[in-house]
Structure formats: structure tokens, C-alpha cells
Amino acid sequence: MSDKGARILYIEDDHASRRLVERVLTSRGYEVYVASEGLEGINLAREKSPELILMDINLPNMDGREITTRLRSLPNFSNVPIVALTANISPGSRELALAAGCTGFMTKPIDVATFPSDVQRFLQGASDKLTADERSQHLELHAQNLVERLENKVRELRSANKRLMELDSLKSDFIVLVSHELRTPLTLVSGYSHLLAEQVNNKNDLIPAQSIAGIAEGLQSGVTRMQEVINEIISVVRISSGTLDLSLGPVRLTKVIGDVADTFKDVCAKRNLTFIVDDFSEMPLLQGDGRRLQAAIEHVVGNAVKYTPDGGSISVMGRNVKDKAVDIIIQDTGIGIPVDEQRRIFEQFYTLGAIEHHSTSKSAFQGGGLGLGLAIAKGIIEAHNGRIWVESDRRDADTLPGSIFHILLPIQPGDTPPMI
Ligand code: ADP
């Protein structure tokens, strides 16, 4: 059979090797198909019925030997030459490839001068041989490798499945929480609007301004809470899809921290929490998105308020780290966080403690939340090339070990902050 125009399939994950072989063989008149991984290669082989297959051995997912064994089990592929083309020349790799069903073994990088004639040789029926002993020894090894890989795959799948199930249950909890968080302010809005309607219907006279103001305030607070919930959801979606847009500019931390302190002033006074803020006026100017940074710090401070019982204290401190970064430290005297949960609390939907215990007030002790606050804070900080982490000994609502959150932000957003 003439091999001119023969169809050759090359399964190879390395782009440069693929290009080179494709070029060399195409210039000799062969019809070349390429695939970058096993399943794609098997599908292409079925579709194109190649007269020769060149097979890289080290491939992601299925390796070249496994693909060869699989191809050999398919109708029409028992006799097609499959030639291993590999950079791996360690002892035994040739024998293993042949035992797995390869017809021949060639090494990479290819020698452009001799490669086409080698290919032609295999197309014309050449094959590398193993002794019966070598074959049975390596076949056994190949079978062992296959079973080991299968075992690893089963393990990987099992843990991926477990993770998905966890995520699924976190998401279900999240839906319950969101409905709950939206329903409460909605009830408020609906109650106040009924009240307004009643006042309008029942009175022929003008409604007193005071009464209107009270209703307006109630409506306003319901709407604000709904806006906050929706904004949190939008932020987390943007962060997960990598579409969080930052509008960079100079950020003065005194202003940002001052605004955060203002946000929590009233609730701290109401709950008898001492709120101590360092003087940030000497801190270097950062380059970043001030609005988003403020939101991130607000989430962390909001948690400090939420997880500290009445009468406790919250401090916000700043440290200049070698003129490269600023470390914003938020310390509370609250219930603390168990050491083995300290990473997971930054994941989306993760709230520690059963959701049925969540109360709806955002600022009450252990008040409700969507489990998104820290994920949002982390997303914003990381978008600034910063890092956020927590230090706490344990969780204990009696002894109150407290938590210390660090937000480390590089002064220039392109910089990586130093390790501390
Ligand atoms: P949530 O909406 O549940 O507050 P967050 O993402 O803000 O969600 O926080 C995740 C979890 O981390 C919280 O459920 C809480 O258990 C824990 N946590 C966060 N900050 C603190 C803190 N300062 N003290 C104690 N626990 C905290």
C-alpha cells in the first residue's frame, strides 16, 4: 500500500511538539490530525480511521499506554500501527509501551531528517518486538499501573463528589437564608405600606408629618436591608466570575477607617461596645478602590461587632510593614473562631453554626448573615493583591478568646505584600 496521503493521528499535549510533527508530516503529503488528550484522540481515531497513530505517553487524564490499550480493544484498531513518541527514555518505558499495545517506540524531540522515513517504515508494517518473557513481565506491570490509576481516579471522583455535595447543601442553606433575609425586610415594607394606606383611607384631614416620617423611616430601613442583601449577592457573583471591576485611585486610610467607624458608632453605643480606632493619619497613601476597600473592612468590623457580646471591645489598628504594605488589624473580644474553621470561613456561603440559630438583625450579637461577608472581603482584598487571615485560639462563648483579623494591603497594587 502506498503511504502517500495516509491519514496520521498524533495525540500530544505539548503544543510545540504537535506543531513540529504536523508540519514535517504535512509537508510530506500526509493528512495529519491532532488531539491534545486521550478522549479527544479516541473520538478522532473513530471518526477519521487513521492508518497510523503517533502517541505521546505522558498525557493528562489518560496516559498514552492507557489510550493504546483502549484503542486496541476497539473494532478496526487491533492492527493499526500505534507508535509511542515520547521524551521518557527511562529503563523499561519502551517495553511497557510495547506491552500496552504499541507497535513501535520513538523518542522526542524528533530528528526532522529521519522522522519521515521512520514513520513510513511503521506504515509499511515494521514493528518492534518483545520476547515472550519481557512481554508477560511488562504486561503485568501495565495491569498494575492501570489498577493503581483507576484506584486514584475513584478516590479523586469520590472526594470531588463529596465536595459537590457539601457545596450543594451549602447552597440550599444559602437559599433558605436569602429568602429569610429578604422576607424579613419585605414584611417590614409591607407592614408600613399598609399602615400608610390605612392612614390615607381613614383620615380626611392631612396626615401629621410625624406619622409620615415614622412610616418613611420604616420603609427606608426595609428597603436598605434588601438592597444590602442584593448587593452582597451581586458582589459575590462578580468575585467568583472574576468580573469585579476596581476603580483605582489614591486611598487615604484615615478617611476609610473613619467612615467605617461612623457606620458602627450607633450600634456600638446601643450595645455598650467600646470601639477603639488607631490614628491612621500617618499611614501611607494606598493605590486602590477606596469604596470597595471600605466595604471589605466593613464586613470584617461588622463581624467583630456581631460576634462580640454586649460590653466587649473592638479595636482597629494599623501598622506600616516596611513601607511596602499596610496591615489593618481588627481585634475583638468576642466568641472566637475554631482553628480548623479559620480557612473555611472565607469561603462563600460558609456560616459557622446552624442556620436556624441565625437571628435577622445584622448587628445583634450573633445576628444573621448570608455567609458571604468574608468571601466578599477576601475577594476585594485579593483583587488588590492583598491577603486576609484570622488568628484565634478557639470558639468559646463563655471565656471569649476573641479574634484578630489581618488585612494586609500592598501600598502599590502591583506589589506583593511581604510575609509577616
Ligand atoms: P456571616 O454572614 O455568617 O457572618 P461571614 O462570611 O461574614 O458570614 O463569616 C463567616 C463565619 O465566620 C461566621 O458565620 C462566623 O461564624 C465566623 N466569624 C467571622 N468573623 C468572626 C468574628 N470576628 N468572631 C467570631 N466568628 C467570626
Distance between the termini: 70 Å
Question: Which class of the largest domain in CATH terms?
Answer: Alpha Beta
Q: What ligand species are in this complex? A: adenosine-5'-diphosphate
Largest sheet: 5 strands, parallel
CATH H-tier superfamily of the largest domain = Histidine kinase-like ATPase, C-terminal domain
Given the structure, what is the number of helices?
A: 10
Mind telling me which CATH architecture of the largest domain this is? 2-Layer Sandwich
CATH topology of the largest domain: Heat Shock Protein 90
Mean pLDDT: 89
Please report the total strand number as a whole number: 12
Number of domains: 3
Strand arrangement across the biggest beta sheet: 2-1-3-4-5
Order of helices and strands: EHEHEHEHEHHHEHEEHEEHEE
In one word, what is the shape?
elongated
Integer-rounded radius of gyration: 33 Å
Give a description of the structure.
- Residues 355-359 have low confidence and may be disordered.
- By secondary structure, this protein is an alpha/beta fold.
- The strands form three sheets. Strands 2-1-3-4-5 form a five-stranded parallel β-sheet, sandwiched between helices. A five-stranded mixed β-sheet has the order 7-9-10-12-11.
- Helix 6 (132-202) runs antiparallel to helix 7, helix 8 (253-270) packs parallel to helix 9 (290-306) and helix 9 (290-306) runs antiparallel to helix 10 (373-383).
- It is elongated, with a radius of gyration of 33 Å.
- The protein folds into three domains: 7-130, Rossmann fold, CATH 3.40.50; 164-243, Helix Hairpins (Orthogonal Bundle), CATH 1.10.287; 244-410, Histidine kinase-like ATPase, C-terminal domain (Heat Shock Protein 90, 2-Layer Sandwich), CATH 3.30.565.
- It is 47% helix and 15% strand.
- The N and C termini lie far apart (70 Å).
- The longest helix is centred in the middle third of the chain and has 71 residues, at 132-202.
- Adenosine-5'-diphosphate is lined by residues 299, 303-304, 307, 332, 334-337, 345, 350-353, 369-375, 403.
